[in-house]
Amino acid sequence: MPIYEYVCLDCKNEFETIRSMKDADKPTECEKCGGLHVKRKLAVIYAMSGGHAVSGTSNSCNCGSCRGGNCAGCGS
Ligand SMILES: [Zn+2]
Question: What domains does the chain contain, in order, with CATH numbers?
Answer without folding.
Answer: 1-76 (2.20.28.10)
